[in-house]
Structure prediction request, 239 residues.
Amino acid sequence: MKKKLELLEELQVIDQLIDLKKTEQAILSTDIDELQKVVSEMQSSLSEQQSQMADLRKEKSDLEVALHAEQENIRRSETNMKEIKTNKEYQAVGKEIAAARKQVSDIEEQLLLLITRMDELNAEMDKMQEELASSELTSSASVAEKQSLIEEFQQSIDSSLANRELLVKGLGNNLVRRYNQLREQRRGQALAEVRDGSCLGCNMNLPPQLYNNLFKYDEMYFCPHCQRILMLKQGTEEG
Ligand SMILES: [Zn+2]
Prediction:
């Protein structure tokens, strides 16, 4: 029985190591997700700016077409004016020209605003592109580093699992099943050390008879409070 308890203890050390490595892997994965999220948010900001720029370009080209049309109107009216006979007609065409000139100056003003906005947006995009490039660089280095750590942990987990399999073979199915159940129920700890008559799994005192029985190593004993498998620690290991 003592031998089996020792094997179980060894199994628990391995299992807790595996748990630890898995937790570390999960943390690294979350970190990687966050790093990639930052970069992808910057990418989507940039592409939003690019689509804004496309809209502004379209607006600009529409305004230029309108400007050109108004200028054509003015030229045509000016040509017509030369053939006008009556004062009334002359005044009417004059009004048309004045209205068209007003249109031209409005459009030119809008164009100026638009070009200013485009310049600003261009500057914003340059800045975002620079930030994105540097962020991608740092992020990809950090992601690669974290990924290689995850792989390292995986190798360690795999070799622990191989050791675990050997141990499990020596312990028998029933015992391992019981141990696995306890681990699930007791936050990863199926075995509890006993020191000075107390279970260190739950820090409760054990009944004296049970405590005495532990020294016999005749069978497996369980803590009446937390149900963990009890494992006597004595001699040099006793604090
Ligand atoms: Zn206990």
Summary: The pocket of zinc ion is lined by residues 192, 199, 201-202, 204, 223, 225-226, 228 (CB under 6 Å).
